Amino acid sequence: MKIFKDKHTLQKEILKTEGISFVPTMGGLHKGHISLIKQSKKTKLKTLVSIFVNPKQFNKKSDFKSYPRNTKKDIKLLKKLMVDYLYIPTFKDIYGFKPKSKVFLDKSSKKLCGKFRKGHFEGVLNVVNRFIEIIKPRYIFLGKKDYQQLYLIKKHIEKRKIRSKIVECKTIRENNGIACSSRNLNLSKSQMIIASNIFHYLRSLKKKIKKNYSLFNINKIKKELIKLGANKIDYLENYNTKNFKKVKKPYKEYNLFFAYYIKKVRLIDNI
Ligand code: PAF
Asked: Rounded CA gap, 189 and 191, in Å?
């Protein structure tokens, strides 16, 4: 595996290839990332993974600081997976140039996580737009756990007529049901159990509301989550995954999207 810290050296290498399959990450690699990488490798193009904890997408300094980092362990794993290239840029490498394309931020960026994490999606789109200009990947692999992010990146690519194709990958879960996330590394064993209980409660609720939508009583559900050990709930809403509109009628295809805290750890998922 070749490791690059500088975009010019990376770009020289990319020119020698037939195209790149790109897996952007912020490190703290887990089973979800492994699954993205395995799918990327199936394209037979060179797989490039990036590790960059992007400060611009964190709305709180403390959250940026406590975001799990373990580059040594990540590198070991990526070598084992026989990843071709790893890009670990500095802040200047990413932000020290003016991109040709302007970020397109769809209005749905104001909903769900966008409402509770001011500037978050602006930060995500900013960094992804820059990565795309540097790498010009043929494919970009993204997980459905961060569905709103995935949706907004797709909209940006469509609007700006970028030729990279987004490959949507299913959410990978721990044995206890919770979605794999780097943030899980900040949960204690007992907090993991709380997260798992919340997941199972919401999954069975989703099955019930499919049959009887009047059971979707937000205040009651929020109270139940607090009882199960959540400390704060940002949102709990049903959204149509195709057009990313809030579902008002039960017969529509939808996922239940939620974000909540266990102490200081913020967890999101959609089921
Ligand atoms: O999902 C993530 O890990 C990040 O938001 C991404 C896409 C790597 C951009 O920093």
From this structure: 5
